Amino acid sequence: MTLMMLAVVAASAAAAPFLPWPDPASWPYVVASAVIHTGYNLSLVRTYAAGELGETYPISRGSSPVLVALGAAAFAGEGIGILAATGIALVSGGILSLALRGRRVRAGVLPAALTTGVLIGAYTVVDGIGVRLAGNSLAYANSMFLLWGLTTPVLFLVMRRRPPAYTPRQTATALAGGIVSILAYGIVIWAMQYDAMGVVSALRETSVVHAAVIGRVFLGETLTARRIASCAAIAAGAACLAV
C-alpha cells in the first residue's frame, strides 16, 4: 500500500505544474476525500485480514452503489429514475450474492467489509460534489490524489514504525498498481461531472464481471451456476443504467 501511494504522489506531482488549481469552492472536498480515502486504505487492510478476498470484496463493493445513490440524494439533491434505481439494485444485489456462495458470511467479516463499503460510498459522494464545483475534473482529481498519496504513506509508516521490505517484483507490482488506480478512479471522477453518482458507481463495480471472465478464460477458474446468475444480474443492471 505504501509503495502504491508513493507512485500516486510521484505521478500527481509530475502532472501538477501542467494543471490549473481547482476552484477554491472544491478545496474542502479535496481535503475531505483525501482523509476518507486514507481511512478507506486502513479499513481495506483490516477487511482483507478478516476474511477471504472472495468473501469481503463483493460485500464492500456491492454495498457501495446503493450507499452512493442514497448519499447523493441526501447531500446533492440528486434524483434517479426507476430504471436507473433498478439497475443499481441489480448490480449491487448481483455483486453481494457473489459473497454468499451457498454459505453464511462469517460474523467478523460483515462489519469490516460494510465499513469499507461505507467509506467507498462516502468518498465517492464527496468527489462527486467536489468535482462539480472544481471547474476542471483533472485539476480536482490530481489535487486529491496528491494529498491522499502524501497522507497514507506517512500514516502507515507511523503505524509500522519501520519501512516495509519489498522484493523487486512486489515493488514493480505496487508501483504499477498506483498508476492504474489513478487512471481508473480518475475516469470515475470525470464521469461524475456529467452523470448521476449512483449510476457511475454502479457501472464502476461491474468490473467484477470482467474479473470472472478473465478468471475463467486465463486462469481456468470454474464458473458455477450461482456465479453465472450473479454476473447475469450485474449485466442486466448495467443494461438498465445504459438506457
Structure, described:
The termini are far apart. This protein has helices at 2-15, 27-50, 53-76, 82-97, 109-134, 137-160, 168-192, 197-205, 207-219, 225-242. The protein is globular. It has one domain. The chain has 243 residues and is an all-alpha fold. The chain contains 10 helices and no strands. This is EamA family transporter. Residues 1-15 form the signal peptide. Residues 112-241 form the EamA domain. The chain crosses the membrane at residues 67-100, 107-126, 138-159, 171-192. Keywords: Membrane, Signal, Transmembrane, Transmembrane helix.
Radius of gyration: 18 Å
Number of helices: 10
Shape: globular
Order of helices and strands: HHHHHHHHHH
Q: Give the N-to-C terminal Cα separation.
A: 37 Å
Strand content: under 5%
